[in-house]
Amino acid sequence: MAVLAALPLLALAACGYGSQAQNDSSAQKIAAGAEKIDGLDSVKIGYFGNLTHATALVGVQKGFFQKSLGATQAKYQIFNAGPSEIEALNSGSIDIGWIGPSPAVNGYTQSGGKSLRIIGGSASGGVKLVVDPKKIKSLEDVKGKKIATPQLGNTQDVAFLNWVADQGWKVDAESGKGDVSVLRMDNKVTPDAFKSGSVDGAWVPEPTASKLVAEGGKVLLDESSLWPGKKFVITNIIVSQTFLTEHPKAVEAVLKASVETNKWINAHPNEAKAAANKQVAIDSGKALPADVLDPAWKAIRITDDPLASSLTTEAQHAVKAGLLKEPKLDGIYDLTLLNKVLESEGESTVDDAGLGVG
């Protein structure tokens, strides 16, 4: 989920294009008499196997995407990092993806505004600063401590660096050294590092934050508290510009499924939580335990709104930290099809904060 404009995207994407998702056959059945959309055999969809991508998890598990796509097969790839998903989109390995704001900005700016569009929202919130209560009892105590973030320049890394700067502390963004030591590590590693005392806390998304709490950590700060209305984008939907131009009906079908999934999630929170966890187990081989799943699920807000104004703010935070040159984000959004779907469902349309296509 990097926003480092100075780093080659290919180098950041060394982990590859992601793995094929394994799904319940019942959720992938094509209805009798269904027709292909735009004559397509398949639509390739990417997402992360974590709860901030709940729309994708539930949409896959409950078959919403396949139902909306008719006889066009929904194919899925699972990713662990934003840069690899952007590379997959650029190469045509996927057509549409659920992804965090920072890699979306990075992919758009590095391509000169030619690679992708953000076409919808998915989730807000779900990011916390969790600390060892024996070492850190107040926000002031964070100074001088070792705090983990998921990746240099990723969405949470930028947010933490911005928060540090707001405290009047100084940290070199590249090295992570300064009044606070910022250690970049994979979310899969962070709970063990926290348990061993290698880090004193972490600014991380769910479910990693709740995993740290399960290891004895304490939530010192919920990032939502720093945003107007406690809303900020954590997951967007992106599409290849080429695919959007050539297959708008297929894109609209995926967006229709996304809106239907989000409506179902918000109407059936407990069933949706179980469905998301079932898909997490299928994708990763292990379900989340209740003491992690329950608080993590409560922290995430599912929404069709991409919360475009918060994307602009997050990009400015990256510029402020020295991790991103002033980005040109005009045209990064195309919410035409999403708003068409929302209107057809009797829902309110959403805004692109002036960053839509001309």
Describe this structure in words.
Keywords: Cell inner membrane, Cell membrane, Membrane, Signal, Transport. Residues 1-21 form the signal peptide. Belongs to the bacterial solute-binding protein SsuA/TauA family. With 358 residues, this protein is of the alpha/beta class. It folds into two domains: 9-124 and 231-344, 3-Layer(aba) Sandwich (D-Maltodextrin-Binding Protein, domain 2); 127-230, Periplasmic binding protein-like II (D-Maltodextrin-Binding Protein, domain 2). It has 14 helices and twelve strands. The chain has helices at residues 9-12, 54-61, 64-69, 82-91, 101-110, 155-166, 190-196, 208-214, 241-246, 248-267, 269-284, 290-299, 308-321, 336-344; strands at 19-20, 42-48, 73-79, 96-99, 116-125, 127-131, 146-149, 181-184, 201-205, 218-222, 233-240, 300-302. The strands form two sheets. A seven-stranded mixed β-sheet has the order 1-3-2-4-11-5-12, sandwiched between helices. Strand 7, helix 6 (155-166) and strand 8 form a beta-alpha-beta unit. Helix 8 crosses helix 12 and helix 10 (248-267) packs across helix 11 (269-284). It is globular, with a radius of gyration of 19 Å. 54% of the residues are buried. The model is unreliable at 1-16 (pLDDT under 50).
